[in-house]
Specification:
alpha/beta; four-stranded parallel β-sheet; 556 residues
Amino acid sequence: MIGNQRRGGVVLCRCHGQNSGSIDLETVGRFLREAFPGTPVEVADDLCRDTAPVAHLIKNVGPTCLVVGACGEGGVAARVRRRASQNGLDPYSVSLVALRERSALVHPYDQSTEKAKLLMASGLRRSLAFSGTHPCNLRPRLGGNGGMSRRSLLSLAFIQQQVIPHVETRSCLAWRGCRNCLASCPAKALFVSEERLVIDSERCRGCGLCTIACPVNALRLPTATVEEMDEAMGGLLAQRGVSLEPRLLLLTCSGTSRVLDGGAGTEYPAAVLPLELPCLGMASSFLLLRALERGAWGVGLLSCNGKCDYGFLCHLERRVEQANAVAQGLGLGERRISLLAPGEREAVVQGLKELVSYFKGAGPHRLTGIEATPLGDEGSSLGLLLYRMSQGASDGAVSLPHAEDFPLGQVAVDPSQCIACGVCAANCPTGALRAKEEAGVFRLTFSHVSCVACQLCFKVCPQRPRALTVAAGLDWGRISQPPEVLYEEMMTRCQSCGEPFTSPGVARRVQEALARRGGLFNSAYVASLCPRCRLSGGILAQSLKKNLVAAAPKNF
């Protein structure tokens, strides 16, 4: 959700007439002022050489973030961010929208203006959701994706900063044994030291795959957090006052996005709205389905087919298949999400034309036009998203079979093996498992909508592998149901004060542990006492006396 304390600024560049000749920049400026009241909008020219308008806006208005609509040449972003930094603004709070390549050079005048509105609104909302960078988020690297020019070589502009994730230590559960993110990192840049998660900045490539693997959102990648991605989608899909339909969200990575740059043979439909991710692997099930809830008629993913700058093979087929099954089960229609094969520019453009034509024929789905619920505190909870979509998309008649290998979890407990210790619930990162003691009864409850199948409960269970099992999968019948009771048992009462204090299974384990240690104390008696009575000097003396009497000769 966009914070009220943040204020954005907008600079539109004419680009020597290439933008102003194909886009009505004045109309775009009025649209942004109306959609974002109080936002200053300035029109400049030749930001490639002169970034003084950026400094002027920052000094006179004092925005907390900035959106610049210009060209997509690599040096422009670096120069604009350098000027912003010199004037006290976080350089990564600046979003650069390539209006020339993504709008002016691709579409007719009227469509180009409409698309420019959405691109700028998306960039502004994304910047307003930006929460800042830490020193640990930046590491120097040489050059950029577009190579180095002689000018950048002489000015040392080829030394750039790359944004990498950081760990929110207060949220991270590495100390509890959580290791979900480690397997997701293609660069092997994550490791645990002294029960703390550490990122090797030299190895990290900033792909962001670890951030979607974390069950508690403890890994944060500035410029690509779930909040920023959600607001960017909102700007493209839910912004009112723009006549472009059907709105198709196209997810790309930094490599595949270049195929969309304007040029010969790149006249794809203006309704195709690109959103660039650091790596296409960040297109989680949540992001794909959230785009439909946000109002997208469909979602396309432009795959890199293994030619990834981060060394990650984007195996997204299964994720897309599952998301389509959910969309169809919700009554949103078939093939709402499509994975596009990479290829030459002409082939990609033809694929986009066919996709837009398909959605025009399919029409909008049930969620189109419905105001999406803000993320709120639950963040990227896939289960809660599915619950909301089921409420908005149907009248309770959801037709979806049990889906194996879905990124939700299902926990089962064997009552004959569980000792009701509550360790699983105490270590559950999402609150899917909860242990409650009430009126002398212990209850372990489970909420399918909150479980992410992180397996942490299984790892900490003292009775594993028999007492508790976790399986990944979606059971639609349990999504809208209240938490179910997995285990219920009367608690053991203290033999001294009579208060319930633990389960029979835990008391039995304590007794067995005391018996193994031996000594003068009666293990069965001590195990039947609550901690308060166990620490009472009189009770300990009584226990000692009973043991001494029991151990003494009968004729003593």
